[in-house]
Amino acid sequence: MEKIRLDTQRCKGCYLCIANCKPGALSLSGETNGKGVITVKVDQEKCIGCGCCYAMCPDLVFEIL
User: Fold this and answer.
1) 50 near 22, Cβ under 8 Å?
2) Distance CA 38, CA 47 (A)
3) CB neighbours (10 Å) of residue 44?
């Protein structure tokens, strides 16, 4: 079940989300967006839906479902 949805085109690569994800559900995807930024991916199995990534992200990449 998907807990978080990402709009990776909004990502500017600050990676505050990865640094602050306590369960370690976020990592680099290895893919780049239209800005040339390596985007973030979420491991839905590890994600607990806490919303920390949403709160930390200045670019509104995350949507909590």
Assistant:
1) yes
2) 20
3) 12
Output the CA torsion 33→34→37→39 (10° steps): -20
The dihedral sign for the CA sequence 31, 6, 23, 18? positive
Q: For 17-48, what is each residue's pLDDT tens digit?
A: 999 999 999 999 999 999 999 999 999 999 99
The answer, as to whether pTM is greater than 0.70, is: yes
Structural domains of the chain, with CATH: 4-57 (3.30.70.20)
Give the position of tokens 């920390």.
52
39: DSSP letter: E
- CA nearest 63: which of 42, 37, 32, 35? 42
pLDDT at 2: 80
